Amino acid sequence: MKKYLFVFTAILFSFSPFTDNTIDRLGVKGPLVYGDTNFKLSFTDKPNETYYLQEYLPAGDTLPKFRQLLSLQLFVKNITTGDAVKEKIQELVKRKLTDAICNYKVIESPDGKEFIVDFLVSESKKNVMETVEFNIYHYKQIELAGEQKGILVYAYSKRSYGDEIKPFLKSLKKTRIDMLNTMIAAQVPVVTLAQN
Question: How many domains does the chain have?
Fold first, then answer.
């Protein structure tokens, strides 16, 4: 099982290399509206046959140093959302050993079919915190063509850098619930894999 789940640990920070690679492989060209903000498709990748990534940015943000980012991550694997979330939690528990700010919470839907994991991570250089990222990952199992199943992760990330980190963390105590409510209320985009 770990062999199939290891890819879930690949993305904590969304540090995608910037290229002009915006091939819509999921049928979600956008723009996506999240809260009151429009997000435009800015980066896509398919590093292997079972993993798809599409990232969306609001006007004014660029990769890799963004303030807000939406992403769709599709894992074409026949596993449960519960197993996917367990792998993410294991990753975050391990990260807490080296990232003092790392923290997470899990919300499970009443029917147990969907999960939201919100978590905070940071990056430091020479013991100086340079980046803090708050993430909300909405995990959902979906049906794909040909009786395939997959796990879709609809994710929102918000970042702060340098001197803005302390005010960001202070405001997060108040804004976290609003951001979670936005994700809970959001319609998860319907993905359709392009036929090869």
Answer: 1
Sign of the torsion angle spanned by Cα atoms 160, 155, 139, 22? negative
CATH at 155: 3.40.1000
d(CA 59, CA 63): 12
Residues of the chain with pLDDT > 70, as a percent, come to 88
Buried b (16+ CB within 10 A) or exposed e, 148-185: eebbbbbbbbbbbeeeebeebbeeeeeebeebbeebee
Query: Residue 94: its pLDDT value, please?
Result: 97
Q: Is residue 196 part of a domain?
A: no
What is the DSSP annotation of 59-80? Answer: TT--SSS-SEEEEEEEE-----
Separation between Cα atoms, residue 135 and residue 138, nearest integer Å: 10
Which tens digit of pLDDT belongs to each residue from 53-69? 999 999 999 999 999 99
Does 193 map to a domain?
no
Which pair of structure tokens corresponds to residue 18? Answer: 């910037």
